[in-house]
Amino acid sequence: MRENTDYIEYINNFKLKTNQSFIDNIKRFYQETETISTFHHGQMVAKEAVSLSKKHSEQLYQAGLLHDISAFIPKNKHLSVSEKLHIPVLKEERQVPLLLHQKLSAYIARECFQIKDPLILNAIECHTTLKKDFTNFDLIIFLADKIAWDQSGTPPYLKDLNSALKDSPQKAALVYIDYLLSHNPLIIHPWLSAAQKQLIV
Prior knowledge:
Elements: H1 7-13, H2 22-32, H3 36-52, H4 57-66, H5 78-84, H6 91-95, H7 101-113, H8 118-125, H9 136-147, H10 158-165, H11 169-181, H12 190-200
């Protein structure tokens, strides 16, 4: 989208088309915002999430498709857009506004796609960091996003993560978090720290 786009106006004006399926409406959003590559990433995450769980397949698929729906908002606009939408912003998110994309995506899922299911919204909101008292649904979306990552090549942690996954999703999540923290992240999100403590117990 053009740099001078009013991102909030686009969010406010987007309407679901009743003659389109839910997935086609999601795809149209990605097409209109020129982020179709993110739609393909979302499809991969959605399929991976469904494969990781025997429950909630429809909700997992929707969460996977929508988890990065805010990709059209530039990184340098994440903070200002979040503030204008009255999304709570943590100190660490002010330091690294990219981390706000998970909250922005949850907002868009709710407002543009009429998602009311807290399972879906909560998982989208913490798909990058997890958070305290995460659910198994949250954990599945978190892992699916790390397995079907949005970069080229194979994730460097994937072999160890998949090995740990044979024991439990919790151990697999710890593999990723340990990898992340060993590579000097710009900041450590408090939600991630809280999730790590619970995973270790």
